[in-house]
From TrEMBL, chain B:
Protein name per its UniProtKB record: 4Fe-4S ferredoxin-type domain-containing protein
4Fe-4S ferredoxin-type domain sequence ranges: 58-88, 103-132
Pfam families, per database record: Fer4_7 (PF12838)
A GO-annotated cellular component: membrane
PANTHER family found in the cross-reference section: NADH DEHYDROGENASE UBIQUINONE IRON-SULFUR PROTEIN 8, MITOCHONDRIAL, NADH-QUINONE OXIDOREDUCTASE SUBUNIT I 2
InterPro entries (alphabetical): 4Fe4S_Fe-S-bd, 4Fe4S_Fe_S_CS, NADH_quinone_OxRdtase_chainI
Organism: Prevotella micans F0438
GO molecular function, one term: metal ion binding
Record has NAD as a keyword: yes
Keywords: 4Fe-4S, Cell membrane, Iron, Iron-sulfur, Membrane, Metal-binding, NAD, Quinone, Repeat, Translocase, Ubiquinone
Amino acid sequence: MRRLFLRNDFSGYPLRKDFNMDPERNMYSTEDDIEIDTTTEWYLTDSGDLKSVSHSLFTDDDFVVNIGPQHPSTHGVLRLQTILDGETVKHIYPHLGYIHRGIEKLCENFTYPQTLALTDRMNYLSAMMHRHALVGVIEEGMGIELSDRIMYIRTIMDELQRIDNHLLYTACCAQDLGALTAFLYGMRDREHVLNVMEETTGGRLIQNYYRIGGLQADIDPNFVSNVKQLCKYLRPMVQEYLDVFGDNVITHKRFEGIGTMNEADCINYGVTGPAGRASGWKNDVRKYHPYAVYDKVDFEEITLTHGDSMDRYYCHIQEIYQSLNIIEQLIDNIPTGEFYLKQKPIIKVPEGQWYFSVEGASGEFGVYLDSRGDKSAYRMKFRPMGLTLVGAMDKMLRGQKIADLVTTGAALDFVIPDIDR
Amino acid sequence: MENKLSYFGEVREALKTLSIGLKTTIKEFFTSKSTEQYPENRKTTLHIAKRHRGRLVFKRDENENYKCVACLMCEKACPNGTIRIMHEMITDPETGKKKRQLIDYEYDLGDCMFCELCVNACNFDAIEFTNDFENAVFDRSRLILHLDKEVYRGGSLPEVIEGGANWEIGTFNTGTKTK
């Protein structure tokens, strides 16, 4: 066991209720964080004693290269401590927590509406879905029945956000492989998606649109026509990314057979989302635990067979088409009704535990809420999408070349603030 | 993907994909540009969504009176402690009832994370966000705003408050002249 998020010299366990939160005792140290090269394994002996044994992360003659935390292709501050044998990767130790903000602990001190402000800042490319999960778990706890209009708009917004994420993903895949042109095409079209969302939500990255009991504001008058125009514009453009990058022979040579993970391992490592579906694991939360109006729309769950980086890329591309299909089915039929159901000024959730998960852009995103009947949560746990993906990188890349680490990272689609929380 | 092509067949397929890519870039070379000329288009073709959250302002009626009654709901709702309200109790000389009076509404733009919780918490419809986004200043202390003392008239770009220039999905306002 190693510390994932906190410093090595941190003492205590902040999520325990007996942790002393006195600011005087928890001053941030300006000393260097001395990194320990060992990891501790705990086990029970036959007589029931807890024993620990220390393992070394690497031996003296291992060649260790740090990739990150400031490496551009790690998409943020992620450090992958890589043990190399020549060019071949022997082992990867991810070091996380460079932007750990303690969102789960913060949520315990915030009131329920205040916690909403934090989820958008986790995976900012799935801001809508994150909020959907948090709002969903609180509404489930309070037993709020939403109107059809709210659920329709939420579904459309989730799918717009998914398109936004997938466009950025396909663009960044190209960027990490050195194809700047394809990157710019993706970013250009993402701008139109953001414009559509901004007219209604008022945000481009941090959306702040859902709230407990409905939506922040009604859709803007041009929303329906804008979305229709966007769908019309976007469909031919997706083929363009394939033409310029996805179907290119160089991309195929770099992506095929790289970072392969079979279905069984994907399930073992919890690799959800498009990365898992590329290996054939049917794990789409929208299909198997429908929320909002996903049970009423007709869409296909994309599953591919190879489980390599190329299939992950194609899975994202085909999901853009599916998202467009969903939006086109819903956009003409938004029912009239309330966009916000008035709640009490102080929101309290009755005692109990709830879990609500949504299909984020790169995996399942879940929120677990333990409420003791107060106006703030007793425990709020987020299941991030990227953490399991980074955890699986070691397995995917063992025995492959170091240059493929960047490609695999690009094709996995993780966002660091989401991992670090 | 099963590869059943001969060596030269593979080369031919590879060249085909490369030429498709080149064809696409050539096609894009002749389509219209997508760069908006920001500082130049400020007063002409700039479009900022009306709902964009740029900064917090007091809503004022035609006599420039604000509606804030210093109930402190927004201060309590803010996760960051961005809003600080000073108030005093004054007695109405006619009715003898005690009433809260706002002395100072301090809003720290530098701390704000634009989550709109204060607007949601307000029961008197006294505050709102505007799309005034040109908030850069040279000194951090100038970000601390006193909303009751200022009368907001649209900031640096009053013509953009309602959204600015028209714009259409799939296009960019690349010019700097109004049509």
